[in-house]
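To illustrate the input format used throughout this study, we show a single complete record. The first block contains the structure-token representation of the backbone; no residue identities are included at this stage. The design step must infer an amino acid for every position from geometry alone.
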């Protein structure tokens, strides 16, 4: 018996309709072939263990960036382009994105572009390559999308990298600008790119799968930690601080705020730390103003990838503090009756922008936070009622 055509033994065994398959397979196996099969299964388990170790490794989040940097450098070198960029496609947000370095600050900068504009968008949506000698004269050319700031674009070669899971669906787009020597990109350049594009696609897609798995695994663990600590105090201020801290850690955000809704005063209020970082003070805003006000008024979730392009965003706080808000995830908090009692607002995700998966995690967290807050509020009301009744009794 040979194993050259066995494929993945473990993948076969995980199929529900293949119960008993391994027992049937080993029943009449001679010892040498049994040893061979066991070695085969052992090797597969070792691969799975390495994959699990990779998922558990927090460095997985930088792996994709390292790969993109290396591929960008080498593709530009092979095809002799003056400037090369690999744009990843985010179908959830209908965007193309890549990371670059801000020349002014030296910090990483995430650039996001619409997927339905320019030469770049055409390649991303159709999967068709575009090779033009005079980029600015092409009818699809859009300077806001197809030309980097302070750059003069002449020749353009824009080609897709396809998904291996969804045939014919672009996973990324590679844009090469201005071939060396002032000559246009030719058919040989396109052929050479296609010779390694499939391999790059497999690697990028695999890395993204690992990243999503790692993020989800850490998210589930963080959600479990967060929800188990929420109900440990009936003090409203302590619960507020706990919800904000746990939400920030869960969503890997730079800042988090929980606003409670006061329907009588038509305002949102929260507690924020003073300059000493310890003392808490009240912050009150109209319940229909800004990002949080919109969510409180409509009950809708807002996931904003670029705060400064959203007219509901108020940049005054950034201007006063020097802080720069990039992206925002803001969602309603409901009590056990389904009534809106507050809003959670997360600012600046550490890696990239907030995703649909982030929304699901925060929604699950908010349901637990809503119950914890309701319990704290009810306890506080009961406590004040008891104190008032005792005071009234003593007065007589």
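Output of the design step:
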């Amino acid at each position: 018996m040979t194993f050259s055509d066995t494929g993945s033994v473990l993948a076969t065994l995980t199929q529900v309709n293949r119960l008993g398959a391994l027992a049937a397979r080993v029943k009449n196996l001679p010892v040498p072939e049994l040893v061979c099969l066991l070695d085969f299964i052992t090797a597969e388990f070792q691969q799975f263990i390495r994959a699990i170790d990779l998922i558990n490794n927090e460095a997985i989040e930088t792996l994709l960036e390292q790969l993109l940097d290396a591929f960008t450098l080498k593709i530009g070198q092979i095809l002799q382009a003056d400037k090369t960029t690999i744009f990843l496609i985010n179908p959830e947000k209908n965007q193309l994105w890549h990371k670059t370095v801000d020349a002014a600050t030296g910090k990483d900068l995430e650039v996001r572009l619409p997927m339905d504009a320019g030469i770049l968008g055409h390649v991303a949506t159709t999967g068709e390559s575009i090779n033009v000698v005079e980029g600015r004269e092409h009818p699809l050319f859009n300077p806001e999308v197809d030309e980097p700031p302070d750059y003069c674009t002449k020749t353009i070669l824009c080609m897709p990298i396809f998904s291996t899971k969804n045939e014919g669906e672009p996973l990324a787009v590679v844009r090469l600008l201005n071939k060396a020597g002032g000559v246009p990109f030719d058919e040989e350049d396109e052929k050479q790119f296609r010779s390694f594009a499939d391999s790059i696609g497999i690697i990028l897609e695999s890395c993204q799968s690992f990243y999503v798995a790692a993020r989800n695994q850490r998210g589930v663990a963080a959600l479990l930690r967060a929800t188990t600590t929420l109900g440990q105090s009936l003090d409203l201020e302590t619960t507020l601080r706990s919800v904000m801290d746990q939400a920030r850690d869960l969503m890997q955000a730079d800042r988090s705020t929980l606003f409670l809704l006061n329907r009588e005063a038509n305002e949102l209020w929260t507690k924020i730390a003073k300059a000493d970082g310890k003392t808490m003070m009240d912050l009150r805003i109209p319940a229909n103003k800004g990002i949080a006000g919109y969510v409180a008024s409509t009950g809708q979730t807002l996931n904003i990838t670029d705060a400064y392009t959203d007219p509901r965003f108020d940049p005054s706080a950034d201007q006063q503090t020097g802080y720069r808000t990039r992206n925002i995830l803001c969602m309603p908090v409901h009590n056990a009756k389904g009534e809106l009692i507050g809003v959670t607002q997360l600012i600046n995700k550490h890696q990239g922008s907030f995703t649909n998966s982030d929304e699901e995690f925060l929604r699950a967290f908010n349901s637990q936070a809503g119950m914890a807050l309701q319990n704290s509020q009810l306890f506080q009301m009961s406590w004040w009622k008891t104190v008032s009744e005792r005071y009234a009794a003593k007065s007589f």
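Structural context for interpreting the output: The two ends are 97 Å apart (CA to CA). The first helix runs from residue 9 to 13.
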